[in-house]
Amino acid sequence: SHGRLGTRLRRTPGGPHCGETMTTALLLLAIWSRLPCLLWAAAPPGPGPFGSTVRPQPVPGAARAQTPDGWTAGKLCEIDAALNNTNATAALQSAIDECGDRAEGGTVLVRNSLTLHTASLWLRSNLTFRVEAGSALVGTATGVGDKVTDPTNLNVTDAPIVYTRRESVMMWAHAGLLNGGRCVKLKDPLVGWDDCAAWSKLENVVIEGGGTLDANAQGWFDDEQPGFVKQARPMMLDLLWIDGLTIRDLSIRRPGFWTVHPTFCDNVVVANNSILTTGPNTDGCDPDSAWNVLIADNVFSTGDDCIAIKAGRDWSGRMVNISTRNVLVERNVFKEGHGISIGSETSGWVLDVEVRDATCDGTDKAVRIKSARGRGGGVRNATYRNIAGTAKEAISLSLHYDYTDVPTNDSATPEIHDVLVQNLTVGATGSAVAVLERSSSDPGAVVSQQQMTMAARLRNPADEELESSSENPLYLECLGLNDSLIDGVTFDQVRVTTAATEDDDVFLANCSFCAGIADASTDPAPCFL
């Protein structure tokens, strides 16, 4: 089949939109009736990490990266070639300390085709960290062996425990390969959601050069080793609190957790990198409570989300309450991985995201926005434009990401508003179908031909989360909750192709919390009709 979708989703009927003017009587009636947009309205978006100035896109990134030879300005600290194939941690950190934090700037230079082994390093301001083509940094905290009780294990000594953010929650965890700001003072008393009272903050940082950053951290995937704590694994480029950050022209490999993680950062450029990962939770690039971000001209092939744009998670994320805003993702190639995602960590809100001119080459999902009960916040004003290629699933919008149904308070139920998917042409790697969930518990129920162009059977709502595959791919997934909002979603020039036939036994998923309209030419028919 070959379909064109001309669709606009709106909030499920049942009450006035949040923000409409109502009389006191109507307001009391709305509260009494427990209308979703009043009882469950998420808290408003938080500010930015370095103020709330929205920059024009494309943002410039670090000042030292504005010209190709910007690294030549200031003091040069070149790593001695005699350190090739040795543990160069001390020399690298000494060079960073000597050339960083200078008014005139400085550069740590790794060239001459060196391979340097290193533990965790901490960057400084006004610094270019340059690993040139043919050279490589290889991590020594491999994740192999006892991570807690053996104090001589390199996972303890070479990736020390620090206060940081993991999976968008503030916690103690192993340091990354390259690190930004550090917690320099804890709160007294501790509060749980963010125990740091003061952070060191950086500005004007560049990581570049054409070489390879290899965390060598695949041992962290073994959850049967002593001391394994999933959330405490080191993120590779764990870059907190940097104002003006550029990461470009690098091959980035083998993280033990998320790969490029700019957190509480502003004016960020991630460009022209090759980010290849395998293993659980090895996301490619995850801006987290970050403003003014450009992700451009990269190639991603990952063990989890290729890109996942985040803003804090659950109670910690809502209390920290720093949003992500003004993110441009353009001209990237997405191969293996879970796609071009926003969420599921949306507690501080994700606002004003544009993904454009993307190529999907077998990724799981082309368009993915996800959150869950307990997160809070949400997503507003997200555009996916000019997306082409192949994917197992074309579009997934979910406020039911982890299938959590336990009721929560009014600030912890997320929302999705104002999403545009425009000019998307994706070939599904099998049967392309609209997805649906009904209250029926009968797994043999059949969707009428007036609603679908092919026969299909309903998934029992009690089933486990549906996984898209080459045998059971999806084209549109819209998962919601009775007390969640998905509105203002527009499909324009969306085409999904498939080799499926009417005889294929295809599964359907939840679409019961989205209302919408579609023109008569829409094929397959959207599940919300």
Any descriptors?
single chain; 529 residues; mainly beta; 24-stranded mixed β-sheet; 4-stranded parallel β-sheet; 5 helices; 32 strands
Number of helices: 5
What structural class do the secondary elements suggest? mainly beta
Overall mean confidence score, pLDDT: 80
Q: How much strand?
A: 35-45%
* Helix share bin: under 10%
Low-confidence blocks of residues: 1-40, 430-473, 502-510
Amino-to-carboxy terminus distance: 19 Å
Extended strand count: 32
Rounded to an integer in angstroms, the radius of gyration calculated over CA atoms is 24 Å
Q: Can you summarize the main beta sheet?
A: 24 strands, mixed
Q: Which of globular, elongated, flat, extended, rod-shaped describes the shape?
A: globular
Describe it for me?
The chain has 529 residues and is mainly β. The chain contains five helices and 32 strands. The longest helix is centred in the N-terminal third of the chain and has 11 residues, at 89-99. The radius of gyration is 24 Å and the shape is globular. Mean pLDDT is 80; it is low at 1-40, 430-473 and 502-510.
In terms of topology, how is this protein built?
Layout: E1 2-10, H1 24-32, H2 36-39, E2 75-78, H3 89-99, E3 106-110, E4 115-118, E5 121-122, E6 127-131, E7 136-139, H4 154-157, E8 161-166, E9 169-174, E10 178-179, E11 183-186, E12 196-199, E13 202-208, E14 212-214, E15 237-240, E16 242-248, E17 251-253, E18 260-263, E19 266-271, E20 274-276, E21 291-296, E22 299-301, E23 307-309, H5 314-320, E24 324-330, E25 333-334, E26 340-342, E27 350-370, E28 378-398, E29 415-428, E30 474-479, E31 485-497, E32 515-518
Parallel strand pairs: 2-3, 3-6, 4-7, 5-10, 6-13, 7-14, 10-15, 13-16, 14-17, 15-18, 16-19, 17-20, 19-21, 20-22, 21-24, 22-25, 23-26, 24-27, 25-27, 26-27, 27-28, 28-29, 28-30, 29-31
Antiparallel strand pairs: 1-31, 1-32, 8-9, 11-12
